[in-house]
Amino acid sequence: MSVFIPLGALDDAIIQKIAEISGENARRCMQCGTCSAVCPMVESMQPSVRQLMLLLQHGRSGAVQEATTAWTCAACHTCLVRCPRGIDIPRLMEGIRQIVLRQNLDRVDPRAIPAETLAALPPIALVAAFRKLTA
Ligand code: SF4
Ligand code: SF4
User: Fold this and answer.
1) Which ligand does the CA of 91 lie closest to?
2) Model confidence pTM above 0.85
3) Count of CB atoms situated within 10 Å of the CB of 67
């Protein structure tokens, strides 16, 4: 069973709000793919960072809502350092998370996490995860 909770619809106005919160304009992305190539989390993301930028550029709110990308981002800043357009992608990811969480929508259901997983994880990991994934 997935621990991720399906989200409600995001509209184009919310995508604009993501840009306002993050201060980053996805339309500056030139789709070079460097961010996806250097991202250590890319294999756990669906879609990749570059693909998420493309979805934002096209106002594909439904696809942005389904994306795991922002929730998987570890904010390591590798993409920021390498992006030829200087786009602060971690900030943009934070903007996506904030716009969802501010609607009081949790991204993870703690009750769906298996007991053995809870027992195995260090408490600091759980606290960090709930700060990032719950409203
Ligand atoms: S590295 Fe920057 S310009 Fe290249 S695809 Fe990623 S966000 Fe776009
Ligand atoms: S900041 Fe996030 S998106 Fe960028 S390289 Fe690190 S994990 Fe990937």
Assistant:
1) 2
2) no
3) 21
Q: What is the extent of the structural domain holding 38? A: 12-133
CATH number, position 100: 1.10.1060
φ, ψ for residue 108 (rounded to 5)?
-140, 145
Residue 58 lies in a domain: yes
Q: Tell me: the pLDDT tens digits for 20-72?
A: 999 998 889 999 999 999 999 999 999 999 999 998 888 887 788 779 999 99
Number of domains the chain is built from: 1
- Best probe residue, ligand 1, of 31, 81, 91 (max atoms within 8 Å of C-beta): 31
* Beta carbon of 89 within 6 Å of any ligand 1 atom: yes
Q: From CA 19, how far away is CA 17, in angstroms rounded? A: 5
3-class DSSP state of 108? strand
Please state the atom number of ligand 2 nearest to the C-alpha of residue 69: 3
Q: Is residue 37 part of a domain?
A: yes
Which ligand number lies closest to the CA of residue 39?
A: 2
Could you tell me if residue 1 is inside a domain?
no
